[in-house]
């Protein structure tokens, strides 16, 4: 039985790694992570990818949370009979309880995943124009009080990247090691009937 996962570019490498560890024969089809800066474009991109892949695979799954689409991704998937990861955003995918706890403690928490820490200068700095207009940093981040890195694999390089991201927006960095088990469990649930 053939299976494919349409994955957010921010999760694609994690999905591939999990598939390798499990010996799953799946193809991963990423959609650019930069669409998070334009969430209204995510559902149409998922829909186009589903249309392109339909008929090529026995099973399709989607490695996206809602990601600011306000239910638009779910509308596409219900019509296609395809399931996605649960959660409002990728932070939920990795650490739902930790995110809820962090927001309860300090509502002004800005979250980083490993991917976002490593790509922050591009995905946030350049894409939001902070490299050209650093004065916008105050406007964008004035209501945040800390950066919380939800570390999946806390390597020294990723820790340095997380610190640079926090420094870039002038907020203190805190770290919670969450690993990748939550994403792995969700992928198992999505693919349990299709992978061997």
Which features characterize this protein?
alpha/beta; 17% strand; 8 helices; Rossmann fold; single chain; 196 residues; four-stranded parallel β-sheet; three-stranded parallel β-sheet; globular; 7 strands
Task: Please explain how this structure is put together.
The protein is an alpha/beta fold. It has 8 helices and 7 strands. It has helices spanning 12-22, 42-53, 72-80, 90-105, 114-126, 136-141, 156-168, 181-191, and strands at 3-8, 26-31, 59-63, 83-84, 109-112, 146-151, 173-177. Helix 2 packs parallel to helix 3 (72-80) and helix 5 runs parallel beside helix 7 (156-168). The longest helix has 16 residues, at 90-105. It is globular, with a radius of gyration of 17 Å.
Summarize the model shown.
The chain contains eight helices and seven strands; from the N terminus they run βαβαβαβαβααβαβα.
In terms of topology, how is this protein built?
Layout: E1 3-8, H1 12-22, E2 26-31, H2 42-53, E3 59-63, H3 72-80, E4 83-84, H4 90-105, E5 109-112, H5 114-126, H6 136-141, E6 146-151, H7 156-168, E7 173-177, H8 181-191
Parallel strand pairs: 1-2, 1-3, 3-4, 5-6, 6-7
